[in-house]
Amino acid sequence: MFNTGLYTVYYEPIFTYFTKNKIPDRQIWYLDGFYTSYQLSMMGIVNWPKRANYFNDPSSLVFDTNCDIFPQYPHIFGDPVNFLRIPEAVRESPNKTMLFDGAVKRAKHMIDANYKTAVPQYYKGRIQLLIPICLVSESIPDLALVVSKNEAGNQYLGHTCLTLDMAYNNARLIARPDSAWLKP
Questions:
Q1: In angstroms, rounded to a whole number, what is the distance separating the alpha carbons of residues 126 and 65?
Q2: Short-list 153, 102, 156, CA closest to 129
Q3: N or C: which end of the chain has fewer CB within 10 A?
């Protein structure tokens, strides 16, 4: 059994419950169903796993506007898969680095105005933040830049760009994104 991290419309935690398979030469466990605490109690199960905790320091969930952002341009523009995530009009522009720098600067202003603009995601054991990158239109994000603080904690490193769908799916691991720009 595990806690899915999801809730019913009544904010009851939803648990996934597996049962040992009695059929030989089959998988050991099979999915019995999804249950609430009440339903599990009715089955005689009274100890439930807690929801996964992805962070110890709540401050890691909020962007520090005192820090500068340094994108990893060789990866963002040089990796063929990542490069195709960038809108075509920008990909072919000789000023793509300048456009991207302007979009990063604008994102910092947006975050300064509303801290919820930077959305946390969990990746490889650490919290990262997703920030909107508006390249074609100054008010409609095209991408999410994935950033995390450096070891000294005084700068953000922009590791890669994700499509908005990818960013939304990653952010959902922690909580439903409460942001105006990152929607399903």
A1: 20
A2: 156
A3: C
